[in-house]
C-alpha cells in the first residue's frame, strides 16, 4: 500500500459515508476503491461492508424512537429473518470465487444503480396487500432482501423501503427506522461470518470506517443543502461509471 492508496481509500470512504447519510450508494465507491488497491473482489466486498457498518449502527441509533409501538411484521420477527438472510448471503459470497464474483459484480452494480435511480418511483407505487398474502410476502421478501444484503450491499436501503411501502407503511421516518434496524442486523451477521472466515482486510476496513464515520458526521450537513435530485444524480452517474469500468475489466 502506497500513501496514494491510503488517500484513495480514505477519500472514497469519506465520500461514501456522506452519500449514505444523505441518499445511500456508498458501496458504489468503497468496492471499486478496494479493488483498485489490489484487494481481491470477494474480500473487497466483505471489507467494504465492514467499513460501512458503523454508519448503519449510527443511523439505527438516531432513529431508535421510531421503532416503538406495534408493527407488522414484528421487530423481533424481522430481526430473526434478517439474521437468517444475512447469514445465507454471506455464506453465498464466501462460496463464490473471485473470478466468478468478478463476472457477477458488473451486473450487480448495474442492477443496484438502476434500482437506486428508480427508487422514488418504486416507493410511490408501493401498495399494501391483503393481510394473509402480506404476511407471507413479508417473510419471503425480508429474507430475500437480507440474502441480497449479505451478498452485496448496493441498493439495500431502496429495496427495504420499497418492501415496507408495499406492506402498507406510509410514515417515512418510521420506515427509515425499520430499514436501518434491518440493515444493522443483517450486516452485523454478515460481517461476523466474513470475519470468522478471514475475508476482511482489517487494516483497510478500520481506516475506511474512520473515513466513512467522518464523512457521515461532517459531510452530511453540507450535502443536505444540495437538492436531493443533484445528490441522487451524482450517485447514479457514479454507479454507471463503476459499472462500465467493471464490465470493461471483466472482458
UniProtKB/TrEMBL annotation:
Principal localisation: membrane
Signal peptide residue numbers: none
Topology in membrane: Multi-pass membrane protein
Superkingdom of source: Bacteria
Keyword Membrane: yes
Cited Pfam families: TauE
Keyword set includes Mitochondrion: no
Regions that span the bilayer: 37-63, 75-94, 100-119, 140-164, 184-208, 229-248
Compartment annotation: Cell membrane
This protein's UniProt keywords: Cell membrane, Membrane, Transmembrane, Transmembrane helix, Transport
InterPro entries, A to Z: TM_pro_TauE-like, TSUP
Family per similarity comment: Belongs to the 4-toluene sulfonate uptake permease (TSUP) (TC 2.A.102) family.
Protein name: Probable membrane transporter protein
